[in-house]
Write a structure and sequence with these properties.
Blueprint: H1 2-26, H2 30-34, H3 40-62, H4 69-80, H5 86-94, H6 98-123, H7 131-155, H8 157-182, H9 186-191, H10 197-215, H11 220-231, H12 235-245, H13 250-277
Helix pairs in contact: 1-7, 1-8, 3-4, 3-6, 3-10, 4-10, 4-12, 4-13, 5-6, 5-11, 5-13, 6-7, 6-11, 7-8, 7-12, 10-11, 10-13, 12-13
Length: 278
């Protein structure tokens, strides 16, 4: 039964990521995608939070909290992977800047591919990361659908307008199914209570929310966008590494599963609160 649930969760996650990125591309042009990146402050803040601050927080936590080594590795992985497609949905819910969110997610996915092979051996001594194995799923699941949506919007704008609501519906249904299926992981998460792992996960999520909101500039929509985009991590990328480099350490994958569930709940609650306060 657990294998069936895991397979369904993976399938709906894949559907959510692809339809979210394809739908995003259907409503944008290349100029729209690149425009937020001209905001140097936003760009530098996003890179600093996701690739310096949060890994730094995780590095301090694993040396301060007394939990198992495999869980520490999972926490480091969680902090180092950026560019979550779910952040786009959270930003949309919070009435943030969806175009900026899409630009930042795309940039962070590309940066993650180049960042991890160099950063992880420093953060986790002894680990080796297969760059191609990491980059290929990110390219196929995130960058390729986004590019296809952009191309369709440029060449077939009427068809793109008709297709975008359908992609939105599929992504919403997929997200709802992910939430339902992830309820099966609640006992695993509960089992981590008292180990310090949940405290570490929450610390990184809250650090991303706070730093993004504070460093997002004077525009409220941009602050919400950077906060939510920094708080939620790119768990599919983390799963790829956990399954490829830590197959004999299942607790690493378990830690990422727990982090993905906790993060999803906290980020969606934060998005709802941002929306209410708008």
């Amino acid at each position: 039964m657990n294998e069936i649930i895991s397979s369904l969760s993976s399938a709906f996650t894949l559907a959510f990521v692809i339809t979210s990125m394809f739908g995003l591309g259907l409503g944008m042009t290349v100029q729209d995608l690149l425009a937020p990146l001209r905001n140097v402050r936003l760009l530098l803040s996003a890179m600093a939070i996701n690739f310096v601050l949060l890994p730094g927080v995780a590095w301090i936590l694993v040396r301060s909290l007394p939990f198992e080594p495999d869980l520490k590795v999972g926490l480091i992985l969680m902090s180092a992977v950026a560019g979550s497609p779910l952040a786009i949905k959270a930003v949309q819910l919070a009435r943030g800047d969806v175009v900026a969110a899409g630009s930042l997610v795309t940039l962070q996915v590309i940066a993650t591919v180049f960042y991890l092979p160099f950063a992880l051996p420093l953060l986790i001594p002894g680990i080796a990361v297969n760059t191609v194995a990491l980059a290929m799923p990110l390219f196929l699941q995130v960058l390729l659908p986004l590019g296809a949506g952009l191309l369709m919007n440029v060449r077939y704008d009427e068809e793109a307008d008709m297709t975008r609501p359908i992609m939105t519906e599929i992504s919403n249904i997929s997200l709802a199914m992910i939430l339902v299926l992830n309820l099966s992981n609640v006992p695993w998460v509960v089992g981590l209570i008292g180990t310090g792992a949940i405290a570490g996960i929450l610390a990184i999520i809250c650090a991303g929310l706070a730093a993004g909101y504070l460093l997002g500039g004077p525009n409220l929509r941009t602050r919400k966008t950077l906060a939510l985009g920094s708080a939620h991590r790119n768990y599919p990328a983390g799963f790829v590494i956990a399954q490829g480099s830590f197959t004999d350490q299942p607790d690493v994958f378990l830690m990422l599963l727990a982090a993905s569930l906790v993060s999803m709940i906290v980020v969606l609650i934060a998005a709802g609160e941002f929306r209410r306060r708008t």
